[in-house]
Amino acid sequence: MDCIFCKIVSGEIPAKILSKTSQSISFLDAFPLAKGHVLVIPKNHHQKIQDMSSDENADLFSLVHKIISRVDSLTGSTLLAVHNGKDAGQEVPHVHVHLVPRSSSDSAGAIHNMFDSELKLTESEIDELHHKLKD
Fold first, then answer.
1. Cβ atoms within 10 A of the Cβ of 19, count?
2. Are 67 and 40 in contact (CB under 8 A)?
3. What is the pTM of this model?
């Protein structure tokens, strides 16, 4: 497999490792969006979160929980982002959680700024989505 994150996990590619668990690892992003941009990944290769086992998911987000306070201490706010699949903007097809320190002067804005227009749904479309997504 030619996955850069798998190569980091195996030690084939060096990284600035911050913390490890039995199933996850965190390290500084090699192409940071801000000072202190961190990635947290599962050690096993999975393209999407739903491909991970419940144990792997719990371990990954436990490490996110541990590291986010450190990242947050840099600026006081942290963007937590997961691009879950290629169409969602995932550039490396291996689950990874971005922890990006944010400040009011970074010009990144809110999540709604990522999209060109505000989506307008009818009440029936909202009801249909509700039905599809609820338990």
1. 14
2. yes
3. 0.92
> Does the annotation mark 94 as catalytic?
no
Q: How many helices (H) and strands (E) does the chain have?
A: 3, 5
Catalytic hit among 37, 46, 94, 96: 96
Q: What are phi and psi of 109, to 5 degrees?
A: 75, -170
Instruction: List, for the chain, all residue ranges whose pLDDT scores fall below the cut of 50.
Output: none
User: CA-CA distance, 116 to 127, in Å (whole number)?
Assistant: 24
pLDDT for residue 7: 97
Domains and CATH numbers, the chain: 4-133 (3.30.428.10)
